[in-house]
Amino acid sequence: MAKWGEGDPRWIVEERPDATNVNNWHWTERDASAWSKDRFKQLFIGAEIKSNGATIEIQEIEKCEGEASANNRKGKLIFFYEWVLVLKWKGTVDKNDVTYEGSVTIPNLSEENSAHEIDVQVSLKDNVKEAEPLKELMNKEGKQVIRDLLNNYIENLQLEFSKGMILPPKDGISGDKIKNLSSGFNKKVSMQPVLSNCESRSKVTDVTTIEVTEKFQCRSRDLYDALTKIEMVTAFTRGQVKLDPVPGGVFELFGGNINGTFLELIPNEKIVQKWRCKQWPSEHFSIVTIKLDEKSDHTVLNVVQTGVPRSESDTTKQNWERYYWNSIKHTFGFGALLH
């Protein structure tokens, strides 16, 4: 088995002219947020919807909050984006000189939903009878126009940020065979931890300690990033994530089934969390200590979790293995060496 720096092609960079990411093994990331904001302006401002004498034109983007990024891991492209958009429009009815105003709100544009599932909310500034045809037009035809433009954005994002993300491998073989994939998390994957029966909602007195050791075929910094970078945590949990990896910062995973607070972080070495499952008795938290020990050809992860309700210990162990460690290995290829 090759050791890092002694022949493992995933970690040898000096033989490439650009000295980066041989064979596309490392997780690399490009920020697509600024590009996305410009693209939204190009797509939406001036867009028109017309029908039966009614005309609507989108005038401006009143609100554009969120972020987008493109990520490469093992030759696979994964796109993350989450936006809240508010568009302002003006419209006229039957060539009338009176102009009416309204807005369109897209509360959650993300990779979790396909374009036709995106929620589009329409409102009028003044709810007057004369403006109702405009609202009806936007609801019947405008929503589809908006979704088509959002689909255009998604396709453009993937096309634009595929460029240069997948590098030619060291042996010079064309990278055309490397697949360009979106995250696939828009398929409503159910990734909810197993819930067990917790008999009492009162203070827990019967607790135990869980200790687990796992081996990952990666450097400690890669594993640390997988546990603390929001885009990587989103990737292996396959859902929306709240994550603020600083002492005192909160986290919320798996639809709120797991939540807590970061207590201590030592980059690439140690993470300590105040951690709980949603179904545990109210306000009961355990303490999770994760230590990373980088060896010559792998990283050992050791987890000690104190204060686990004894009735929950087996379920908690199963959830750690299934929804954390196995998912991390599968998502990022940290399970085994490539030969």
Automatic annotation (TrEMBL):
Domain Activator of Hsp90 ATPase AHSA1-like N-terminal residues, every copy: 29-163
GO cellular component term of the entry, any: cytosol
Gene Ontology MF annotations: ATPase activator activity; protein-folding chaperone binding
Top-level taxon: Eukaryota
Biological process according to GO: protein folding
Sequence similarity: Belongs to the AHA1 family.
Protein name: Activator of Hsp90 ATPase AHSA1-like N-terminal domain-containing protein
